[in-house]
Structure formats: C-alpha cells, structure tokens
Predict the structure.
Amino acid sequence: MSRPFRVLHIASECAPFAKSGGLGDVVGALPLAQRAQGIDARVLIPLYRGIDWNAQQRLPYTLIVPMGGFTAYAGVRRGHLAHSDTPIYFLEHHHYYDRGGIYGDEHGEFGDNLERFAFLCRSAFALCRAEGFVPDVLHAHDWQAALVPIYVNTVEWGSEYHGCATVLTVHNLAYQGLFSPSALSVTGLGNEHLNERELEHFGALNLLKGGLMHADRISTVSPTYAREMQRPEHGAGLDGVVRARSDRLVGILNGVDTVVWNPATDPRIAARYDANDLRGKTYCKEALQRELGLPVRRDVPLYGVISRLTGQKGLDVLLSILPRFLERDLQLVVLGTGEPELERGFEVAARMQSDKVRAVLRFDDGMAHRIEAGADFFLMPSRYEPCGMNQMYSMRYGTLPIVHATGGLADTVWNYDEGTGDGTGFVLYDLTPRALLDTVLWSYWTYVHRYHHIDRMRRRAMEQSFGWDRSAAAYLRLYHDAYRARRGHPYFG
Ligand code: ADP
C-alpha cells in the first residue's frame, strides 16, 4: 500500500481556535476534507491567548528556532480539529502570541508582526524535525506564512525539507505583509533577497511577493478572483507579479464546513429546519427580531449583514443608500466591527430608525448563525471578494444573498430571473449607489409581490452543494502538480 500524501498547513488562523475572517474558516475545514481523502494533513498555528491551552496536549520537546542573529525557543501543544483526528500543532511562545489580538489590538497593528510570523514560518521546520514529519507539500496561507516557500529554497537548501513542494494560497491579495527593508535581518535572510524578483517591491519588504515568487504553485480562493488579481483594479500593486506567475496559479473555490453551517442541526439557532420544511426558519426570524428588540413581524423582509467593516466590503455604498432603502417597510441588522466611520454610520442609522435597524458592533459567532438563520436577505456588496463565505452560509440557511458580481460572489450566486423564478440570489454588476439601490428594491419588491419566487429560490439555494469535497480534490491535483514541479517526477507514494 502506498503511504499517504503528507501535508502541513501553516497559517495565522484556524477556526474555531483563532479566526478573524475566511482564512480561519478554510484552515479549519480543508484539512478535515483532506483527511477524509486519505491525506495525512496537519495544521500549525500560533497558540494565541483565548485558545484553551490546557485542553491541548503539551509535547515533550522544545523547538530551537534560528532567527536572524538570535535563537528563539518554543513549546508545542497538540490538539485536533473539531470532531476529528486531524492534528493541529499550536506554537507556544508567550511573548509573541499571548496578546489581546491576532494581528494587533486597540492601539493598531503589533510593531513586531514581521518577527512574530517569521518565527511561525521557521518553527514549521523545527516542528517537522521534532515530529519526524517530512511533508510532501508545505501549504502556506497568506503573507503570514509566505516565508515558508522562501525558507525551503534558502535556509533549508541542504536539508531534506528542500524537497518539500510548496503551495501558497492567497486569501486576499490586498494583505501583503509590508515592512521596512531594514527589518529583513530578523527573518534570517540576507539582503541579497531584497531584489525585485524576490522580496523587494517598490522600496518595501513585501512578504507576499517573496512567497509568490518562490512557491512551486499558487492558488487563490475562486476562479474569478484568480483572473481579477491579474488586473490593476484588483491587483493591489501585485498584479504584475501575479501575471508573471500565472502559469502556476489556479483558483479553487472555498467550500463550507457543512457540519458547522447546517440549519438542520445547528445548536446555535432557535429552531432547526431544512429545504423540505422551512417552518423553523420563520421561528428563527421571530426569535432574532425578539433578541434584537425589533418589532416581531413575519411580513417585513429582514436584511442581514455580517462583515468586517472595511472599504473592501462596499458597506459605505450601503450607508449612502440607507435613507432611501429605509423608506420601505423592512428591517436591517448589521453585525460587524472595523473602521470607526462605518461603525458610526450604522450606529447612527440604528439610533435614528430604532424600529428598523440594529447595529451589533462586535465579533459574535453565535449571533452570526442566528442572523444567517433569521434573515430573509443577506447583503454583500463587496468591491472585491476573493471568495466570501457568508454568501454560501446564507444560501445554506435559505437566506438569499444580494451580491456584487466580483470574485467568489460571481462564482457562487446565480442571479434571479423574474420570468422563470430561477436563481439563488440577487446580483448587481456595477457597484454604484444607484445599482445597489435598484437591486435591494428589486429584492424587496419580489418579497412583497412574488413571494412564491422567494420561496422557490430559498429551497434551491439550500440545495446547492458547497461542501469541501470538490475543492479538496482540486487541491490534491495542485499538490501533485507542485510535487512534480519540485521533484521532477510524479508522486509514487
Ligand atoms: P473575510 O475573510 O474577508 O472577512 P469572508 O466572507 O470570507 O470575509 O469570511 C468572513 C467570516 O468571518 C465569516 O465566517 C463570517 O461569518 C465571519 N465574521 C465576520 N465578521 C463577524 C462578526 N462580527 N461576528 C461573527 N462572525 C463574523
């Protein structure tokens, strides 16, 4: 029998242990699907404050990690991804990770993020040595892990880890890990790597660029975003780099964790339901209205937003149309945190129209589930969206997404056809206030005058398959490709 393919995921987030967005969801779910395919998939993330340390097994060794000019030491704890035997290693270094945030706190980004995540990347090799684990593929996620493919090609040159194929997944090209070039030495890499074919980009040290240039294969989280990121509008300054590497780039749509996001079994929502019997959804709507202190009314459409409140998400456009939108008999709940101006905007709207709007300005996973279950529509007018998870969660919960046709939103939501009643949501093609207003009013009108179409679309949306199996199979093909590129021969097992 051939031995299983071995993969180590290196990331800064993994749900449910540490999550600030879609990255955490992917790293928490993809390895589970890979295990089910017979891959020996494991995960490495930092041990942050808030993770239940004592529930994780302390391993009997200390990692000795060479950094630039000094040596750092780390403990390792091992746990498992939810309800599985998929190992997750937590890197224990209190000075780096026992803080009030993953990337920053109320004072802003942490000033030593380069050192914190360089340490994560170098520790990956120390961990593999300690475990006697030689991955076939090192799968790095986002800029925080982008040094991994560079280390494979440089500091690991003489070791067996030089044979590991590397895959870098870009969850959002706009987050690149930009630092001052003078800080490079902390990574242990020499200044010779500060050149425009590696880590230097317009005078800055750019970790993501370095990773893109060194990785054997690159992926991003939807086919449309794989095309969009090669264009200046969505390239965030790296479109040229991505174009230059497009021969090794693929877009693989994220799946959803169908155990965590399942209205038929979800313990966080007021009642369970499925596509055959939607009565529980009505109950969830009323429970949500009650919880939020909104008038409990079945007949008004309830619109939901769950999002980081940043410019990327297009919520400033939503704010700009809010007065017109709220002229209708409807309700809106916004769950999110982020830019103060956006937070304030929704807070003011909630104060001015307290019978219609609620702004819940915090990160609240349970509330996210209750909104997905209780809302009728889900608003996601993102300027760009590499994949987006919430539109898929919404569809699973029979909550019709209203999206801008970009990235993964374009790849997952099927626009309503009022002639036939087909579709799984409402799509706008230009993100302008006019187009957004037209589209939300179109959804409102359909709810009021063609409810039978809404009902049909709901059931259709719930029947879409967004599980991880298909995506995991695509990742496996990519791994084999990366392996062949690295070793010059196929994987023989
Ligand atoms: P991004 O990764 O750009 O933030 P995604 O749609 O890919 O966007 O993923 C966002 C994830 O974070 C979803 O699982 C969503 O439910 C969750 N999320 C975002 N904001 C909040 C919040 N305030 N409370 C709870 N969950 C949130």
